[in-house]
Design goal:
Strand order of the largest sheet: 3-4-7-8-9-10-11-12
CATH architecture: Alpha-Beta Barrel
Number of strands: 12
Order of helices and strands: EEHEHHEEEHEHEHEHHEHEHEH
Largest sheet: 8 strands, mixed
Bound molecules: iron/sulfur cluster
Radius of gyration: 18 Å
Oligomer: single chain
Helix content: 25-40%
Number of domains: 1
Shape: globular
Strand content: 15-25%
Length: 305
């Protein structure tokens, strides 16, 4: 993972700031998690996206399942997931995920996927099957789904919300000005429309989004993005530091390392704008300590906040 600050010639101009240092993870727990995923033929976005928190999360028995294979039909310029022509949909996958959740006794699970523009329902059906499978084996487990935009197809969003996940997340990833370059096959306004429609359709779920900083955005653009999310009905938000997943030409370069103090400012602004929960920090990722966000939102809702 090329996490250093480089100039346009690729010359390293700054090492990784100290706030990225992490504790040594529980390797035995990680091996156990990895073995159970491999035995079940399952993928995790933790591995595919080279997440810096894998050690910490797996050490705590938390992982994000990636369904619908590990090859994406899109090529976002911040993402380390393989892109190309995906394989067919595995009808056994929903049950395999549910069995792994049961075997690991997970109380909170996040399910995400690559984009599958090659499928008529863009994968919405597999999400629905996976939610039902987990519920049938582990009715107490809370389920968060992090979805692609399904091209904002109303029937896909309706099917997904009807399966009643507890949290539905769709990431904006970056500010409006940078969106066409950062995620060429996605669209800023379309993603806002997806979040708005999810809010209308989902009677009980919390709506969540996430974005990265360090791609060249300004603070004013970050605030504008948070205002757009509040207007779209978003309850929860994650903000993290962009780290280049490698040196491939496709990957954008880190433009700046945002300080923990600045992340704290973003959190304050987000809360003041009306977001129920904001997780903001250099190592924060979409499903990082996800259950904490859910609990905070749930308590606030119960207390009528
Ligand atoms: S849609 Fe973009 S972010 Fe999502 S897996 Fe594909 S390339 Fe990565």
């Amino acid at each position: 993972m090329a996490c250093l600050l480089e100039d346009n010639t690729g010359t390293v101009v700054a090492p990784l700031p100290k706030w990225f240092r992490q504790d040594i993870p529980d390797m035995a727990k990680i091996r156990k998690m990895k073995d159970s995923f491999r035995q079940a033929g399952l993928h995790t976005v933790c591995e595919s996206a080279l997440c810096p928190n894998l050690g910490q999360c797996w050490g705590r028995g938390v992982a994000t399942f990636m369904i619908l294979g590990e090859i994406c039909t899109r090529a976002c310029r911040f993402c380390g997931v393989k892109t190309g022509r995906p394989a067919g949909v595995d009808p056994e996958e929903p049950r395999q995920v549910a069995l792994a959740v049961q075997q690991l006794n997970l109380r909170y699970v996040v399910v995400t996927s690559v984009a599958r523009d090659d499928l008529a329902d863009e994968g919405a059906g597999q999400f629905v099957q996976t939610i039902h499978a987990i519920r049938s084996l582990m009715p107490q487990t809370r389920i968060e789904v992090l979805i692609p935009d399904f091209s904002n197809q109303p029937e896909c969003l309706a099917r997904l919300t009807a399966a009643r996940p507890d949290v539905i997340s769709h990431n904006m990833e970056t500010v409006r000005r940078l969106s066409p370059d950062v995620r060429p096959q996605a669209d800023y306004e379309r993603s806002l429309a997806v979040l708005r429609n999810l809010k209308k359709l989902a009677s009980s779920a919390f709506i969540k989004s996430g974005f990265m900083v360090g791609l060249g955005e300004t603070d004013a653009e970050v605030t504008e993005l948070m205002s757009d999310l509040v207007a779209a009905g978003c309850d929860m938000l994650t903000i993290g530091q962009y780290l280049a997943p490698g040196r491939k030409k496709r990957y954008l370069r880190v433009q700046r390392f945002v300080s923990p103090e600045k992340f704290a400012d973003y959190k304050t602004i987000g809360r003041e704008l009306g977001l129920k929960h904001v997780m903001s920090g250099p190592l924060v990722r979409s499903s990082y300590i996800a259950e904490e966000g859910y609990r905070e939102c749930f308590e606030k809702t119960v207390n009528g906040e």
